[in-house]
Specification:
alpha/beta; 8 strands; globular
Length: 301
């Protein structure tokens, strides 16, 4: 394992490199409230075949912590990702695997106009494109088909609290940060031991990461943009995900020209609870992208 720092303007990003130096480059992008350690169980399944890059997102782990809410907008997060791509693989496109807010920021990146020349494939787990989600909700409401949007709204109800500056901080710092494995174990109906050990920065990461919600949720859901991509996308749909419901991906194929849906019988934190299965799906998809053949398409209800 080798560590170095990638800079994007005034933001420094703690970056870890490991695996096969001669293999295709795969960048793993974590979400809230994790760090690059989210992928600790996934990496051993991929390290023999791929050159693996992990980094702490801005506001998390050993990376810089910008102070302003606007500093956590998706455009800045995608810019961080492209800075990492340019640093670690300036001459060849990379593959992406993103989870939670890491998946959301990867969606922002793959929908940029020049993404296809810099990103060879993208595997998305438990994190939607917020603009696609906003478009889908608008369509469903126009058609008076409210059950799907209501299901996702109830699953995301906690994000309303995150919009209120300061309100959730004591609970995050003094309870959730201390009991996170037990909470996730109950939330995902899985063994809490697969969640730890916790990062020493977990309390700060929880608090700083709330700015992701404040900077982006209302901005993209209420004023969604048309966002398309020709990058091959594998959508791993965690069927027991209680935070990101599969129904919210109903319209994704309208915006992605090469979309592959794959179900996984897992909860939200599948990189920890189903690391081997997720790694196998990712490796298969990357191999297909590398040789220019289509991976099997699986449609879920």
């Amino acid at each position: 394992m080798r560590t170095h720092t990638v800079t994007n303007g005034q933001v420094s990003l703690h970056t870890v490199e490991e695996g096969n130096p001669d293999g295709p480059t795969l960048i793993l992008v974590h979400g809230w409230p994790d760090t690059h350690a989210l992928w600790d169980r996934v990496v051993p399944h991929l390290a023999d075949e791929f050159r693996i890059i992990r980094f702490d997102n801005r506001g998390a782990g050993a990376s810089a912590v910008p102070r302003g809410v606007a500093d956590y907008r998706l455009a800045h997060l995608a810019s961080d990702l492209f800075a990492v791509i340019d640093s670690v693989s300036p001459d060849a496109p990379v593959h992406l695997l993103g989870h939670d807010w890491g998946a959301v920021l990867c969606w922002e990146a793959v929908c940029e106009p020049d993404a296809a020349g810099r990103i060879a494939s993208y595997t998305s787990v438990s994190g939607p494109n917020l603009d696609h989600l906003g478009m889908w909700m608008r369509r469903r409401l126009r058609e008076v088909r409210t059950l799907g949007p209501l299901e996702q709204a109830l699953a995301s109800a906690y994000t309303v609290l995150f919009q209120i500056p300061g309100l959730p901080v004591p609970a995050l710092r003094w309870w959730f940060a201390r009991h996170w494995p037990d909470f996730v174990g109950a939330f995902d109906r899985t063994d809490p031991s697969v969640i730890g050990p916790l990062s020493p920065t977990v309390a700060d990461d929880m608090v700083h990461g709330m700015k992701l919600y404040r900077a982006n949720i209302r901005r993209h859901l209420f004023r969604p943009r048309v966002r398309r991509t020709d990058v091959p996308v594998q959508l791993v749909q965690n069927l027991r995900d209680r935070a990101v419901r599969p129904v919210g991906y109903e319209d994704t194929d309208r915006w992605v020209s090469d979309l592959h849906r794959v179900p996984l019988d897992a909860g939200h934190w599948s990189p920890r609870s189903h690391a081997g299965e997720l790694a196998a799906l990712t490796a298969r998809f990357i191999r297909a992208a590398e040789v220019g053949t289509a991976a099997p398409r699986v449609t879920t209800g």
